[in-house]
């Protein structure tokens, strides 16, 4: 079990990193250099990583680990066609995500050609505390559980707008819970404005969230609520009729 735990920790430490040295992996995982090296060499032997003599990189085979999970659930297959239609209507990028520990894990995404610097794809993770989908998903949890997750989160002030204090974030979750949507203005990334709503199954359980992201030069929070939110509400209803509880 310890070997498996170490191997998964090594894989996870590559999140957002193109290539890492043994020293990098040891630092990111807390493993000793010999232990980190053994894990990396084992992953290389199994085809989950490559080694150029200096740096290690994850190999395409590692994608099978994530896609095996995604293919075992109906959620991405049901949500993606809806996101495609929503994206085509709005000419904006749309995503769906679930809560994983203190992050949101992207399970479906439809991109437009408009450029926003966050490089997102299926399998990407972002911190939930400063993310519209994350706040929707946190707001769906019991208050004590949501607070516990926030307390365990490294709440970095990513921009001048980012909320990082627990009382401020809990108040925001109360607002999100009451209105059943979240708008985040430039907290994850300057210039990025997003709106998110929860996705529920046929029994009313929140199983995911979807969002629409735009640049502040093209929209306002008021426009998102008045024009984009109604289209997202329609998708909410359609998804609930298809996702079995």
Automatic annotation (TrEMBL):
PROSITE patterns: HTH_ICLR, ICLR_ED. PANTHER family: HELIX-TURN-HELIX TRANSCRIPTIONAL REGULATOR, ICLR FAMILY, TRANSCRIPTIONAL REGULATOR. SUPFAM superfamilies: GAF domain-like, Winged helix' DNA-binding domain. This is Helix-turn-helix domain-containing protein. NCBIfam families: pcaR_pcaU (TIGR02431). GO terms for biological process: 3,4-dihydroxybenzoate metabolic process; negative regulation of DNA-templated transcription; positive regulation of DNA-templated transcription. It comes from Paraburkholderia elongata. Residues 1-60 form the HTH iclR-type domain. The keyword Transmembrane does not apply. Keywords: DNA-binding, Transcription, Transcription regulation. One of its GO terms (molecular function) is DNA-binding transcription factor activity. InterPro entries: GAF-like_dom_sf, HTH_MetabolicPath_Reg, PcaR_PcaU, Tscrpt_reg_IclR_C, Tscrpt_reg_IclR_N, WH-like_DNA-bd_sf, WH_DNA-bd_sf. Residues 61-245 form the IclR-ED domain.
